[in-house]
Amino acid sequence: MKKLDESLLSDLPPFSQLDGSQIREILDLAKTKRFEENVTVFEEGAEAERFYLLLDGTVRALHVTPEGEHVTALHVPAGQLFGFAAAFGRSTYPATVETAAEAVTLWWPMSLWPQFVARYPGFATESYRTIGQRLNEMQTRVVELSVLHVEQRVARTLLRLIQQSGRQEDGGIVIDFPITRRDLSDMTGTTLHTVSRLLSGWEKKGVVQSERKHITVCKPERLHALSEGRPV
DNA sequence: CCATTAAAAGCCA
DNA sequence: TGGCTTTTAATGG
């Protein structure tokens, strides 16, 4: 296999405190894998044999109910680890992970996780920081689901997405991966129809702009107002 | 206010 | 063409 460049990792938080030789060690243990858009990386409950670093693309963690309903828990932007079940003391993955866009990953056998944590300074603290952030996000989302109105939930979701995966463009901030009304309804606990109507309404007001699988937030301020139930 | 159902139109492989 | 995405309208909780 081709040698991986050390600069792949040196700027990412879990590895930023490591010197060149340490990053070299880590890269030499890694394997790369590319995934097409909308494919499953691993399933909830499966043996957690690998942990991944997302080099490029976006993945989402989700749960599928027995009735086949999808509930998206969170999105993971490029540069973050995912699937590190060993960090929670689990031997199986806690959620299904799918690619939201074509993705490039590095992966390591889960058996290496304890060694990484023990050997590499900063790796553990940064990984647990990531866990904390995701836990926080999931908690606030649970609260939001129960107390906020649909319009506020969808607005907040869009704001989170542009904050985590947004790319500045001339017309506004565009969500950097393909996203459908259906995806948004899975994230907000509503229906694709309601999401469609909301987006259409916002588009008329110039707050957002959307094509199929592609949403741009033109006026984040006004979206923020909407997320607090304030009229715009 | 929001979900459900139904129907139709548009986009893309 | 067939399947997926989106919009729109009607209905009902």
Automatic annotation (TrEMBL):
Keyword Cell inner membrane applies: no
Keyword presence, Transcription regulation: yes
Domain HTH crp-type: 148-221
Domain Cyclic nucleotide-binding residue range list: 14-97
Key words of the record: DNA-binding, Transcription, Transcription regulation
Recorded GO MF terms: DNA binding; DNA-binding transcription factor activity
InterPro entries for this protein: cNMP-bd_dom, cNMP-bd_dom_sf, Env_Response_Regulators, HTH_CRP, RmlC-like_jellyroll, WH-like_DNA-bd_sf, WH_DNA-bd_sf
PROSITE patterns: CNMP_BINDING_3, HTH_CRP_2
Any single GO CC term annotated in Swiss-Prot or TrEMBL for this entry: cytosol
Family annotation (Pfam families): cNMP_binding, HTH_Crp_2
Name of protein: Crp/Fnr family transcriptional regulator
Provenance organism: Notoacmeibacter ruber
